[in-house]
Amino acid sequence: MHNLDARDPLALGQQLMSVLEGGRRTATYKLATLLALLDYAVENTPVDPDAAVSVDLDDLAERVIGLYWRQVRPLDGHDLKQSSQPKARIPDAVRAFKRTSSVGEVALDVCKRRHPDPFRELRNEVKLTLVQQPLPRLQRLSKAETHTCFLYDDSWMFDRTSLASIARRGNVIELYPGVGFALARLSSLLKPALQIAWVGDVRRHNAFLKENAPDLAAHLFGMDRVSLSRVREVLMKKFGATCFYCGVRVGAGCHVDHVLPWSRVGIDGLSNLVLACTQCNGDKSNLLPAPVHVTTALGRGRTVLETLAASIDWPSQFDRTASAARGMYSTQPAGTPMWLRTREFEYLAPDFGWTTASDEVRWAAPLDGLRLKGQGHYR
Predict the structure, then answer these.
(1) Which of 192, 269, 276, 326 has the smallest number of CB atoms closer than 10 Å to its CB?
(2) pLDDT (tens digit per residue) in 150-171
(3) Can you give the residue ranges of every domain in the chain?
(4) What interhelical angle do 57-71 and 29-43 show, nearest 10?
């Protein structure tokens, strides 16, 4: 049964938080699933705000794997427990794959490409777990038999659901009309609350964390501990030793910045990475960037970025960056401040538009019809 007006993001957000706060979680799966759904919604925002959105369950499973990929690293010599139970299917499976597929800290996209068959097995295991556990529980206030479905139909999900059953459903869940757009709008508000709840759950499941205070939030949700030196070197060699934002000269130890902030959408592909001076990096922080920065970053060219990324065995994520940008800007209210340069902002206009094609990004009115293609220019 679906009786929630998804066109009201506030009502949807309140319902979600009621479910998450309505009972004691035994594992972090609900939080991981909702965070993955939020990112999916941002990157797949429909043009029509009232449209239904199909969520590919392989894609959702990969996003959940990506969240745990960082978290299965030992902290102070301990493997973090993510559940009150002795075994935790998802983190245990991710940890096992990571230990057998990589030496040191390697990006998930790289391990996926190097070991396609084991990764496929991992994805299927995580997908099955999602359908059997967090997805049918994400809309329940309690263990009651009846509940209101306000995100998607979960009537076919049970603890004995099989991969064959998932395949018969098209390997998707369909977000009700308006839900996908509303989740994209809520993303920047809900993500910090969900991450705080996740940190609290992990502290509760790990007694050693009560004895000292390591930076648990940074360990769980900070950038991957993959050295950015290769990224810095290849960007500097190709585009010059200058700050992407202000053009000032930078040194060998300059910052590598996420144009679309890591805290808003976790994309660390080369298409979303630029060199930045200390002043711009600190002033921009986690703020939404002015669209000119995104179009200029993507305007470096899909082929160029993918070639550079391949040369250092790094993901490019051009399409994800473009899709996430469209979702972020199209769901922000008019008047939203956007960082342009140090102590200077632009404000989102009501008639702003953003469209993408395979190798092209177009920034529509009111900003002079700016258009970038390949290695084009902006005005």
Answers:
(1) 192
(2) 999 999 999 899 999 999 999 9
(3) 9-221, 227-348
(4) 120
